[in-house]
Design goal:
The chain has 216 residues and is mainly α. The chain is built from twelve helices and no strands. Helix 2 runs antiparallel to helix 8. The mean pLDDT is 96.
């Protein structure tokens, strides 16, 4: 990992440029309710948003609420999501999550990190996605794109997800957390890819720690 972190001024400039580059950056998972977003986010682990949206378009036409999922047997739900990786474990978690929502939260998705992480299949990243996109709570969910881009560019400098999230929260103004999450994802998908990043096309390469190592 790269051992330098950009200055606060540079970090804000980087985010300004990314906002100009990706003015439409937003959550890529199609959903109409916090519950649908929760199901989609659980499904999205090691899967593309495009594939999840294809599956949930059919799934949500049949099942829309915790009550609908809670009464399914696991094999039944597996058949509906089998195109997605880890579908057996995800089916188990979605049914368990739906039942817990009914038992503890009157079928409503909770709006705190602590309560969300009690739900089956919900880790810190998923909880941050829900808090940010469903409830408007400033949060930074560190997925593979956010982890890679933030450490390359110099918004963070860490070998693990937890420290990366903590550093991003320290280095990025709180009011920019949620938007920054989407900007970093979009940049990671379009330009700062895992293999062969398109550094020559990058709008923030002059501030990028990784790019500077290439041009020394």
């Amino acid at each position: 990992m790269y051992n330098n972190i950009n200055s606060n001024t540079n970090i804000n400039t980087i985010l300004d440029i990314l906002e100009e580059t990706y003015p439409n950056a937003k959550c890529g998972l199609n959903h109409e309710t916090p519950f649908e977003l929760l199901v989609s986010t659980i499904l999205s682990a090691q899967a593309t948003d495009k594939k999840v949206n294809e599956v949930t378009e059919r799934l949500f036409a049949k099942y829309k609420k915790p009550e609908d999922f809670a009464v399914l047997n696991q094999e039944e739900l597996e058949m509906g999501i089998k195109e997605i990786g880890l579908y057996r474990n995800k089916a188990k978690n979605i049914i368990g999550m739906s039942r817990m929502l009914l038992e503890k939260y009157q079928g409503m998705v909770p709006d705190t990190m602590e309560n969300l992480m009690e739900l089956p299949g919900v880790g810190r990243k998923t909880a941050n996605v829900i808090l940010s996109n469903a409830f408007g709570v400033p949060a930074i969910a560190v997925d593979t794109h956010v982890f890679r881009v933030s450490n390359r560019v110099g918004l963070a400098s860490s070998n693990n997800v937890e420290d990366t999230e903590r550093q991003l929260m320290e280095n990025i103004p709180r009011e920019r957390w949620s938007k920054a999450h989407h900007l970093l994802i979009w940049h990671g998908r379009k330009i700062c890819t895992a293999r062969n990043p398109k550094c020559h096309m990058c709008t923030i390469n002059e501030y990028c720690i990784y790019y500077k190592t290439l041009t020394k």
